[in-house]
Structure prediction request, 314 residues.
Amino acid sequence: MKKDGYAKVFFSQNRRFADVINGGFCGGRQLVRPEDLQELDSEDHKGLRRDLIRKTAFGTNFVLIGLENQDTVNYRLPLQIMRYEVGEYEKQAKQIERMVRDTRDASQKLTGGEYLYGFRKNSRLRPVVTLVLYYGKDPWDASGDLHGILDFSGLPEEIRDSVQNFQTTVLEVQSLRDTSVFQTDVKQVFDFIRCSNDKARLLDLVRSDPAYTRMESDAYDLAAAYTNTYGILQRKSYYMEEGQVDMCKAIDDMIEDGRNEGRAEGRKEGREEMLSEFAVSLKNLMEHFSISPKEAMAVMGMSDTMRSGLEKRL
Prediction:
């Protein structure tokens, strides 16, 4: 599965979707409630597909909220998000058009323009917003609005001021300073990703927070995928018990494996150095007494293992 596939699975749960929106847009204020979220088709009428989109109620009104995942910097993001949101508005407009033209209520008389365009004077679209989650290590240096990717050079100020702008909202996971605004395991996943570049810091994190000893499977998957720790992802079954995964044990084992590999590499380098020294001695012995490699090894009393390693060097 691709990285964004793990993110889609994780955030498809409404409690997490609501949590990341409240933390990302609202500073932790609990404005979006999981029970108010309604899943929508992520594909618009032109076939453009988003990662996730939900509809949520605020009183008698609704807002459509999109969630997109990025692991590399996208310098055309304002244009991409604008297409997504315009697609959602067009989808709504199509629905209104069908209702307007199918009306059988004689009191709802249409003007020529209302019938022609399928949109009444008092018709309204539901607002659409999008939060982009960026997991990459490189700083997000892309423009945060449409104007930032437009070439205004040489244009009069009056023309420039008439060009409509479009803003984007990007949450840089690696740069988050305060994850206390998140109230679900979104916090543990984001903290894990934030600390992934420092092994000591990561180890301290998973050991100090008991939540890492009983992570849900999809949370474990997302944390591992976006930190490229595929080793612990492949061995997930070893750390799973009753549907939960012990990330603390997985990280402990990963670090210990690294230490063991380092020790093994050190022993290998030491053995290679010793064999090189013996090879020089053998060559000197062979040249001085005009004997074969086998005879020289016998004189030096070498074991079969040593002989096997030296034969490739002579």
